UniProtKB/TrEMBL annotation:
Gene name of this polypeptide: LOC115586506
InterPro entries: B30.2/SPRY, B30.2/SPRY_sf, Butyrophylin_SPRY, ConA-like_dom_sf, PRY, SPRY_dom, TRIM/RBCC, TRIM8/14/16/25/29/45/65_CC
Provenance organism: Sparus aurata
UniProt domain B30.2/SPRY: residue ranges: 89-284
Matching PANTHER family: E3 UBIQUITIN-PROTEIN LIGASE TRIM
Matches recorded under CDD domains: SPRY_PRY_C-I_1
Protein's recorded name: B30.2/SPRY domain-containing protein
Length: 288
């Protein structure tokens, strides 16, 4: 009886040891991948690899296991802590460099009043847009959004790279991104790549989404006050950055662009004044 119990305990102990060894091996592998990635000059590969490498691999909660060698537990804790610290430092450094690189492609962007929904108010310099409750009497020209509170930029791009920044501070809802020339501007529109829109949005003051069709829920570490939008036309890349945090918010990769692209803006309804702050196209202050 005692011998059977001893054998069972030994089996449990060995099982725990094997699982711990597997977790340690996976953590060490992930750390090695991060180090290699940090030395890469391939920025597109970095963005494509980011979702899979940004989070540590899943590990078991060993606190409820009664048979666990203390040395292994300590090793796992140290490995996890080291990996998280390595990930955090390397990703911060990588995206500081990446943001500085894309800011070199800054362009001057102004809003096109001929495309603006009748309830939108544009500043005289074409740099700000906000929503009001009064619908202005404007020509229903083909370029104008007639139902959704949206506006496009005057500038369009059909090659190369471009970058611009938009202040979203004190807003509870907004949409930003780029749209192709042939988008439908009449009636209700769905912001998806299939419909010619590559956008992210804020809803209900704290819900960030990418309009990937279906929507992708985003979890930025902090609420961005200024969003940078970068497009590489030939690479089929649209990336969004939290400028102040020098952090990537989301990237559309593998896009196939065949038409002119226009910067796209929606301040969303003002919600009784709760969302009355404007979207502001801001000068690009290059990250140091």
């Amino acid at each position: 009886m005692i011998q059977k119990r001893r054998l069972k305990i030994e089996e449990m102990k060995r099982s725990v040891e094997l699982k711990l060894e597997q977790e340690i091996s996976e953590l060490e592998k992930r750390s090695s991948e991060m180090k290699k990635l940090s030395q890469s000059e391939d920025h597109l590969h970095l963005l494509q690899s980011f979702p899979s490498l940004n989070a540590a691999p899943p590990t078991k909660d060993w606190t409820g296991v009664s048979v666990r060698p203390p040395s292994y537990e300590g090793t796992v804790v140290r490995a996890v802590n080291q990996l998280e610290e390595t990930l955090s430092k390397q990703m911060k450094k990588l995206f500081e460099v990446e943001l500085k690189r894309v800011q070199q492609y800054a362009v001057d962007v102004t809003l096109d009043p001929a495309t603006a929904h009748p309830k939108l108010i544009l500043s005289d310099d074409g740099k700000q847009v906000k929503h009001c409750d009064v619908k202005k009497k404007l020509p229903d020209n083909p370029e104008r959004f007639d139902m959704c509170p949206c506006v496009l930029a005057n500038q369009s791009f059909s090659s190369g790279r471009f970058f611009y920044e938009v202040q979203v501070k004190e807003k509870t809802e907004w949409d930003l991104g780029v749209a192709r020339e042939s988008i439908n501007r009449k009636g209700q529109i769905k912001l998806t790549p299939q419909n010619g829109y590559w956008t992210i949005c804020l809803r209900n003051n704290n819900e960030y989404k990418a309009g990937a069709g279906p929507s992708v829920h985003l979890l930025p570490k902090c609420w961005p006050e200024k969003v940078g939008v970068f497009v590489d036309y030939e690479e089929g890349l649209v990336s969004f950055y939290d400028v102040d945090a020098a952090a990537l918010i989301y990237s559309f990769t593998g896009c196939c662009f065949t038409q002119k692209l226009y910067p796209f803006f929606s301040p969303s309804p003002n919600d009784g004044g709760k969302n009355s702050a404007p979207l502001i196209i801001s000068p690009v202050n290059h990250t140091e």
